[in-house]
Amino acid sequence: MANPLTASLLILHDGPFEVVAAFAEGRQLFRLGGAPSSKTLKAQAAAGLQEASRNLELVSGGELDLDGLLLLGMTGLAIHQAIEGNIMAPAVTLMWYALNAARGPKDGGTGRGD
User: Fold this and answer.
1) C-alpha dihedral over 104, 74, 99, 49, to 10 degrees?
2) Which of 14, 23, 34, 61 is most open to solvent, judged by the fewest CB atoms within 10 Å of its CB?
3) Cβ-count burial of 21 within 10 angstroms (0-12 exposed, 13-18 middle, 19+ buried)?
4) Residue 56: how many other CB atoms lie within 10 Å
5) Torsion angles phi and psi, residue 72, rounded to 5
6) What pLDDT, in 10s, does the model give residues 3-45?
């Protein structure tokens, strides 16, 4: 269904994605970039975080990565919570996260640290 008011096109198709892409491109209607990602949300998030960490390392000249930033941020938040008088739960919890981030991943890079 085409909607000229919103300049949109709705395609109802239950076959392979490639069939729609080939049909549309062959008739010069539009070009699709590729099939939707079959990665899980967890895998997409992990890949995005790894890329962000590499970019942060690149921008900082190798001085800081995402784990380092997390360590600094969580340590700062822990100190702030301690100053606020929230010693038993938030300060300890944030310090725990900071220390876990400092240890780095132990499971091949998924960040779980199991």
Assistant:
1) -10
2) 14
3) middle
4) 16
5) -65, -45
6) 888 888 788 888 887 888 888 889 888 787 766 667 788 888 8
What token pair was written down for 39? 């990665």
Residues in the chain: 114
Name residue, tokens 């994605």: 17
The SS3 assignment for 8 reads: strand
pLDDT at residue number 36? 62
Query: Using DSSP, how many helices (H) and how many strands (E) does the chain show?
Result: 4, 2
Give pTM, 2 decimals. Answer: 0.45
Residue matched to tokens 């975080």: 49
Q: Alpha carbon 89 to chain centroid distance?
A: 28
